[in-house]
Amino acid sequence: MSHTYLDPLEQSWIKYYSNIPENVKINQTDFEILWNLHPEEKGKVKIMGKQLETPRWQQAYGISYSFSGTVNNALPIPPMIQKFIDWANLKEDSDDIFNMALVNWYLNGDHYIGHHSDDERQLIKESSIYCFSFGADRDFILKNKTTKENTKICLNDNSLIIMGGKCQKTHTHSIPKRKKINDRRISITLRKFKNIE
């Protein structure tokens, strides 16, 4: 799979794999195990000084995750999630390793995540971000911060999108609401964090 460049200078790129290798695919039983890991309560974010509930469940694993004025305190990485980290680290073949996962659980098309960039200070600069998608097909929208141009990719079950280069600097991304979707989705996003809290 070659890079899809998002800017004329070819500094921001994505790769999309609609069918990940068998050893990292999950079946329906695995999906239910992962689904049952979701927290009882939804997460919190702080926007314009107000603390709001996220329209999905989320949980950090491995290293706590600071974003939108809040901290998602990490839990130990379960074996089922560790396998994705191990696979990604072998694929990357880099001195910097994936060391945390953020899992988002979407009940249906009313659950979503708004436009944002993964540009936290914890991230190793311009490191690749892997996002595995399981369950319902959902649109993934990348928006150029300068031109406002959108790039839409439908993320299907057992797929992977990789964002790299200056993607987080030049673009935001989102999973928008889709009223007609009634099925569940789980995303597992892997990041390379600096080894400091």
Automatic annotation (TrEMBL):
Domain Fe2OG dioxygenase positions: 97-194
InterPro entries membership: AlkB-like, AlkB-like_sf, ALKBH2, Oxoglu/Fe-dep_dioxygenase_dom
GO BP annotations listed: DNA alkylation repair
Pfam families in UniProt: 2OG-FeII_Oxy_2
MF terms in GO: broad specificity oxidative DNA demethylase activity; cytosine C-5 DNA demethylase activity; ferrous iron binding
Gene3D superfamilies linked: Alpha-ketoglutarate-dependent dioxygenase AlkB-like (2.60.120.590)
PANTHER family: ALPHA-KETOGLUTARATE-DEPENDENT DIOXYGENASE ALKB HOMOLOG 2, DNA OXIDATIVE DEMETHYLASE ALKBH2
Name of the featured protein: 2OG-Fe(II) oxygenase superfamily
Origin organism lineage: unclassified sequences, metagenomes, ecological metagenomes
